[in-house]
Amino acid sequence: xxxxxxxxxxxxxxxxDECCPFHGHLSIRGQILTGRVVKVYGKTAVxxxxxxxxxxxxxxxxxxxxxxxxxxxDCIRAKVGDIVRVGECxxxxxxxxxxxxxxxxxxxx
Length: 109
Hints:
By secondary structure, this protein is mainly β. The protein is built from no helices and 5 strands.
């Protein structure tokens, strides 16, 4: 298992995925984000991030949501409802430029 240079919990499982940062050759650089998994299909997961922005005109805060397509390696297998930490990588496909690094909390917890 490779050391990716980021303080995350290593996955227990193994995989033969080339796009896995721990068992493949994918390097992580750039942003590290946290979000909740809302959909999983194939090796792709959709995470949703909630952003809170201050609007000076109305002197209030506004909630915004942002969805992001990420790669879900076989050794991690995030499920719907999990809170995950993702890292930026090279473009894997047209819409995927992030990969799941760890599951912070499971859907049951």
